[in-house]
Design goal:
The complex is a heterodimer of chains A (279) and B (251). By secondary structure, chain A is mostly helical. Chain A is built from 13 helices and 2 strands. With 251 residues, chain B is of the alpha/beta class. Chain B contains 10 helices and 10 strands. The two termini of chain B are 33 Å apart. The chains are: A mainly alpha (279), B alpha/beta (251).
Chain lengths: 279, 251
């Protein structure tokens, strides 16, 4: 009986890995032939996306993805890191016990709800006060910035909590204030872990689809300012896959391959910094 | 001789637990004073009240007085930052910061507002020389302090303190993480340092207390049982319990 359960669990464990491989294989099988046929340069470097006319340039969307992710980090990292520093270094443990689960609940809100809030609240605010269509790079950055907060905060909290108490004691005993201790010792000790938190947040931002489709306007063009509309790689797939066929469909899979590689690289970098920290 | 630190009628509570009962003693300037006694006797607690590091522990309550040069460090509004600049602490386990050797030494001065590069370089050299690390490490100042041996780390921690020019050094079992030879070398260093500092050391090690200290206090269950010149404590203890402890009959 014991043996049987062990075997069963083994099969289940391996099948989740198998599913990952099947997905990877499928994306590449659909996307790679198209990339080889059209040439990676013409796809990645092309600025025109007219799938019905046989033009498949995704550069504006690569740029759109990078910009909105960068914007999300500009908003999410300072907020998230300050929040984690406050909770670990300054607040009473009781406050942390209440606030940390609340923050982690944020991660459980469906992305469509974030998108909805963005459309109802944020987009009109931007349109009225800052101009432009409202559906914009800025709106996407703010919504994504909020969506990556739970990732950045909860990993940063773990990282800061793992910094040995003896560093803080040593610093306080030398007459340093808590602020000096945090900025000059604790954050330095936690640096690589915080980098991991940022990279994982980045991965979440770059992969987010629904909320981004709802608030960025999805125009395929290079934005002239943060108030212009953009389209990301994920939006492109999300919007068009339902009706695409033939070359068009393959081009969307190729978009998926590009996205897949970007996220893989990010995760690799994240796990490398984490390993470095353990060593 | 005037007392550098005078402890008067001091009681310390952690929540409901009373860790120290009405302790009173005088610590003389430029002497090494040792606190001895079995685990949980309150000696480390007393040490930590002398630079108010106990404040970091939630639920700590202190009654009585600790006078540093005649001034009560527990009076309301007393500046903790200034206190900790004057009274430094060396911990049981060496705890250099995860920074370079150089930045460990300059940390204290930088925290207290010294920015001038030339001044800081001078501090690094003087502090490392004071603990005899300068010759081995002067070409290696950029190296991470975490790559040093335990003994070097503990010396570095003492140098890090010396850099803020304190008056009193509190040492909480400074040699307990070191091997016997390193222990002897750190003890030699302590004997040298007492020329410039008043040293208070907590130790589990009877021989160590006998070797280096001028005066000793024996603690048991939160009470100061006996406080006297170390020679007297170790040769003619007044209290039966002290005698039993130093001769190894318990503890």
């Amino acid at each position: 009986m014991e043996k049987l359960i062990e075997k069963g669990l083994l099969v289940i464990a391996y099948s989740s890995i198998a599913i990952l491989f099947i997905i990877t294989f499928f994306i590449f099988k659909e996307g790679l032939p198209f990339i080889f046929r059209e040439g990676l340069g013409t796809i990645l470097g092309g600025v025109e996306w007219r799938p019905t006319k046989g033009e498949f340039g995704i550069l504006p969307m690569v740029v759109g993805s990078l910009l909105v992710t960068g914007g999300a980090l500009v908003i999410g990292v300072p907020l998230g890191l300050s929040c984690a520093v406050f909770l670990v270094e300054f607040s009473k443990p009781k406050v942390r016990r209440i606030l940390k689960p609340a923050i982690e609940l944020l991660a459980g809100i469906p992305s469509v709800v974030y998108g909805f809030l963005g459309v109802i609240l944020l987009v009109p605010l931007i349109r009225v006060h800052l101009g432009g269509p409202g559906l914009s790079l800025l709106a996407g950055s703010i919504i994504l910035g909020i969506m990556i907060l739970p990732t950045i905060i909860s990993i940063s909290i773990d990282v800061l909590e793992a910094v040995p108490q003896s560093y803080r004691e040593g610093s306080i005993a030398l007459g340093a204030t808590t602020t000096q201790t945090v900025s000059m010792v604790v954050l330095k000790a936690a640096r690589s872990g915080i980098v991991t938190a940022v990279i994982l947040g980045m991965g979440r931002a770059i992969g987010e689809t629904m909320a981004v489709i709802m608030v960025t306007g999805n125009a395929v063009a290079f934005p002239g300012s943060i108030l212009d509309s953009i389209r990301t790689l994920t939006s492109n797939i999300g919007i068009e896959l339902a009706y695409a066929s033939g070359d068009h469909q393959e081009a969307l899979f190729a978009t998926g391959v590009v996205l897949f590689v970007m996220i893989m690289v990010l995760n690799l970098v994240a796990s490398m910094t984490r390993k470095k920290r353990i060593r | 001789m005037p007392a550098k630190i005078e402890v008067k009628n001091l009681s310390v509570f952690y929540g409901d637990f009373q860790a120290l009962h009405e302790v009173g003693l005088r610590i003389k300037e430029h002497r090494i004073t040792a606190f001895i006694g079995p685990s949980g006797c309150g000696k480390t607690t007393l040490l930590k009240t002398l630079d108010r590091m106990n404040d970091l522990v939630d639920g700590t309550r202190v009654e009585g007085q600790v006078l540093l040069d005649g001034e009560d460090i527990y009076q309301p509004g007393y500046k903790l930052i200034k206190l900790r600049k004057r009274v430094g602490m060396v911990f049981q386990r060496p705890n250099p910061f995860p920074l370079s050797i150089h930045d460990n030494i300059t940390y204290g001065p930088r925290v207290h507002g010294v920015r001038d590069k030339g001044t800081l370089e001078g501090v690094v050299e003087r502090s490392l020389q004071a603990v005899h690390l300068w010759d081995e490490l002067k070409d290696d100042l950029k190296r991470s302090a975490l790559t040093l041996t335990s003994e070097q780390q503990q010396r570095l921690c003492i140098a890090r303190l010396a850099a803020v020019e304190p008056e009193v050094l509190l040492m909480d079992e400074p040699c307990s993480a070191l091997d016997p030879i390193s222990t002897l070398r750190v003890e030699e260093l302590m004997l040298e340092l007492k020329k410039n500092y008043t040293i208070v050391v907590v130790t589990h090690n009877m021989q160590q207390a006998a070797r280096i200290s001028d005066e000793s206090g024996f603690f048991y269950l939160g009470r100061l049982i006996e406080f006297n010149r170390t020679k007297t404590i170790f040769t003619k203890p007044a209290n039966k319990m002290t005698e039993d402890y130093i001769t190894g009959r318990f503890g």
